[in-house]
Amino acid sequence: MATPPPAISVAMSVYNGERFLALAIESILAQTFTDFEFLIVDDGSSDGSAAIIRRYAAADSRIRPIIRENRGLVASLNEMLEQAQAPIVARMDADDFSQPDRFARQYAFLTANPDYGVVGSWSEDMGEDGGPIFRTGEDHPLKHDDILTAIDEGGQLICHPAAMFRRDVVLSVGAYHAAFRHCEDLDLWLRLASVTKLGNIPLRLLRYRRYSGQVSSRHSTEQQIGTAVARFAWAERQAGRVDPTAELASLPPIDALDTLFHRDGVSQQVREQVALSLRYSESALRSDGFGLVLDNLRHGGRRDGMWRTVARLLRFGEPLRALRLAATLMTAPRSPTS
Prior knowledge:
Layout: E1 8-14, H1 18-29, E2 36-43, H2 49-59, E3 63-68, H3 73-83, E4 88-91, E5 97-98, H4 102-112, E6 116-126, H5 144-153, E7 164-166, H6 167-172, H7 184-192, E8 197-209, H8 215-218, H9 220-238, H10 257-261, H11 266-277, H12 282-285, H13 288-298, H14 306-315, H15 319-331
């Protein structure tokens, strides 16, 4: 007799994640809902991640290790979607921690709400050492109508490592798109929002680790550019127009976005949105994001809070960049709305 498929396939990709990996794996193995397989891709790590994965796989047959060369997160996620045996997929990251009842509560939600294709949860932020971080701001929206409102307002939708979704629905929209590297989850949620309902459970079922080495810190500029373009693509689809990003393997430079969307002003709107979003990012202001901020000002973009960013650069120990930003603020043209 054939073994029935598991109820849930857990999908986790690891790249040089040995520091927190054991805790992340153990939080999945400790779930009260036990009917799952655990797909773990080692995406070409050069540290001890593969050895850790193999050790846990030898001790628990639910773990299906995939050890191979580096292909990137999007390729890893799509590979796990193809290999998943369950109709429900739960995401997990190698530096986070799932509470023991996470799967039980999310699976029960999807079972009780067949019109929902994705469910996340609220999360609790923790620091590099695992200690709590107290942050302000709203929690993720709960019901699908709240998600749609958050899309319109540019708010948060679903925390990616806290997500559980129906595999067939995600595959029906083309799974993860390579063009939206570092914001592949937002692009996916925006595409799914037109074909299924999305929501969140108002419980902190995931502890989300924040630290300088995580992808969202190291690639904040590229992430914000992708976020802005993904939202423009959403607007195109909502207006009944063809999404010009659908078949892209990578996004073009910002200056080429007017051509991509066949409309003037997209490049400057994206440049401005990204520049304003990077005002508080130390990593971005110390790297490629700084040039984008200057470029926005030179194009007459909005300058809200930019003088405070001058002071912020001084606090970051970047006096030369602070001087350059101040000089640009004094000489750059002003748009009528800036």
